[in-house]
Amino acid sequence: MRSLNYIMLFIAAAAVFSCGEEKRGQKEALTPGKQTDASIVADSVIYDVVVKNPNIDDHWTEECLKPLDRLGLVDMVFEAIYREELIPYDYLSNRPLSVGDIEDLENDPEFSRKNVGKIQFTEEWYFDQVNLRMEKRVNSMSLGYEVFDMSGNLRGYKPAFMVKLN
């Protein structure tokens, strides 16, 4: 489960920050609860990230998503649920779901892991004023899958479930 948290944190950080060199050399990672000069600047930021390009002609989005192993991430979440290392929750009621509920979801003809196209993250943000560094802690993520109209056009996203990571 710890490796899943690190993967989630990496994906969230990669989505927000571009690659670049450290200005002041190697710096120690900010860790919540560790003695640092980091201050919490947001204790509950919620935002959506499109993780599957809905428009094949949108080359910018395609380039932005290139480093993301979306299907691998989705599979890791489902596998952790089936191993009972992560508990899924109903997105609307926050009620815990059973493994049977997730099996039912996977048997629903409207759902496919391949159609998970949006992830909603809930995070804490920390800023270290001394080293001018920012880190984020992903507390939960909700998977949303594509829903199509009768003509096969993307109508929107439907929440599958939420998992709490911390």
Number of domains in the coordinates? 1
Using only C-alpha atoms, the radius of gyration works out to: 17 Å
> Widest sheet: strand order?
1-3-4-5-2
Task: State the distance separating the first and last CA atoms.
Answer: 10 Å
Poorly predicted spans = 3-10, 12-27
Structure description:
- The protein has a five-stranded antiparallel beta sheet with strand order 1-3-4-5-2.
- It has one domain (2-15, 38-164).
- The protein has 166 residues and is an alpha+beta fold.
- The protein has helices at residues 2-16, 59-65, 70-82, 99-107; strands spanning 38-50, 88-89, 116-128, 133-148, 154-164.
- The protein is built from four helices and five strands; from the N terminus they run αβααβαβββ.
- It starts with a helix and ends with a strand.
- The model is unreliable at 3-10 and 12-27 (pLDDT under 50).
- The longest helix has 15 residues, at 2-16.
- 27% of the residues lie in helices and 33% in strands.
